[in-house]
Design a protein that fits this description.
This protein has 181 residues and is α+β, with helices and mostly antiparallel strands. 37% of the residues lie in helices and 22% in strands.
Length: 181
């Protein structure tokens, strides 16, 4: 869901005209009002995107619980093992909400909320499923632990355009640079 600005136009300031507006390099404040909404919000639940994969994952988890019940003869352990597996795959089974605003990003999941300002990110990469924001300018093994992953929900172009507006095209890494709008 995109929440565009309603009836609000800011005049281009000297800083915006110099290309240091909120959208980053080379855009004025007036361009930002026309091209970029104040806030971009959406939710993703990956298990509903591919029903075959959902069925397969569910069958494996239930099968594992059945094997635990057979091996130990305890239904309680089977239920606990299923709960642990579902909990470890929480980002697959449960909804995650994303919100991009001029201040930063907010990711809300079943186990909590993560908020980070745009100043905490130096680069990003895009693939077919989502966008990865990294606090490092170059690739690092730590970015999987310190970065943030945004999954798309039929809104790839909007998300990439918003993040590119905040971090600039020079912050994009990877082979898919040509596909950025």
């Amino acid at each position: 869901m995109v929440e565009p600005r309603k009836g609000h136009e800011e005049p281009a300031t000297a800083a915006g005209a110099a290309g240091t507006g909120p959208a980053g390099a080379g855009t004025s404040g007036a361009d930002v009002d026309e091209l970029q909404p104040d806030k971009l919000t959406w939710s993703v639940r990956p298990c509903t995107m591919d029903w075959f994969k959902f069925g397969l994952v569910s069958a494996v988890i239930l099968g594992f619980g059945f094997v635990v019940q057979l091996a130990f003869g305890d239904v309680f352990l089977a239920v606990i093992s299923i709960a642990i597996l579902v909990g470890s795959l929480h980002s697959y089974f449960f909804e995650t909400s994303y919100s991009l605003s001029p201040e930063g990003i907010e990711v809300r999941g079943v186990f909590g909320t993560q908020k980070k300002p745009w100043t905490g990110f130096k680069s990003f990469s895009v693939d077919r499923a989502g966008l990865s924001l990294s606090p490092f300018a170059r690739r690092s093994w730590l970015e999987h632990y310190r970065g943030v992953r945004l999954l798309f929900d039929r809104n790839r172009d909007e998300v990439v355009r918003y993040v590119t507006g905040k971090l600039g095209k020079e912050a994009m890494r990877g082979q898919r640079v040509a596909s950025v709008p």
